[in-house]
């Protein structure tokens, strides 16, 4: 498979916070860019910078060597790929599709087979690093799918990511992302339980966090999520309802592979509880509010 490099045309579908930032970096890398989204206004800045607009994913895929998408959930990906006006209608044989969404691994494997029948390769590449990582082009890309297709779009990945790893066949990236979200959620739960325990014992949680950062408990979650909770910053960030969706995917992956996964189950349950408490639209660090509330330590 020929390598896809600037100035080849790349289409990007989904102009949310993550998608718009990734698309901008793809254009900065020298690729010709076509964009498409359910809401055209979200693509206005990219159009003003020279990107072409496409009304449908099929139109975006026509003439593109690579088509990327970043949408919320499994049904959204299926609709963009195979629904009326979907990518499958417009992509020519030899096109590489990169799905940056976080969705179900089993569905991803099925989507890859359906596209392969049309001569189109699908790479699943859920990402980690958040909105700032997308803006800075330093995302971690966890990739599953055909190795030759992965090699062909190396320059596209280089435009959006700093750590890019091919992990195996279709769906492998999604399994890795489920593990990523599990680790973050379970660590948040442990961190907030520890800080609330200290608070109830009369310690200053901020001072406790600083002490813990100096030892083996240091983590990204303790550095960042705990500080957001301590500072009372609940504006997302990464919304709790999206982490709930991701933890449901982790539960599904554990079930699919016959796992004994009590930590996964407990972490998923807490994310369900957080959203059911009316905090689904807040940052995931609002989990600290729920832990404090359930522990009788809410302010």
Automatic annotation (TrEMBL):
Domain named 6-phosphogluconate dehydrogenase NADP-binding: residues: 9-168
Checking SUPFAM superfamilies in the record gives: 6-phosphogluconate dehydrogenase C-terminal domain-like, NAD(P)-binding Rossmann-fold domains
Tell me the InterPro entries matching this sequence: 6-PGluconate_DH-like_C_sf (IPR008927), 6PGD_dom2 (IPR013328), 6PGDH_NADP-bd (IPR006115), HIBADH-like_NADP-bd (IPR029154), HIBADH-related (IPR015815), NAD(P)-bd_dom_sf (IPR036291)
Give every 3-hydroxyisobutyrate dehydrogenase-like NAD-binding domain span.
Answer: 171-287
Q: Name one Pfam family in it.
A: NAD_binding_11
Source domain of life: Bacteria
Q: Which UniProt keywords apply?
A: NAD, Oxidoreductase
Name of this protein: NAD(P)-dependent oxidoreductase
Instruction: Please tell me the species this chain comes from.
Output: Plastoroseomonas hellenica
What high-level taxonomic lineage is stated for the organism? Bacteria, Pseudomonadati, Pseudomonadota, Alphaproteobacteria, Acetobacterales
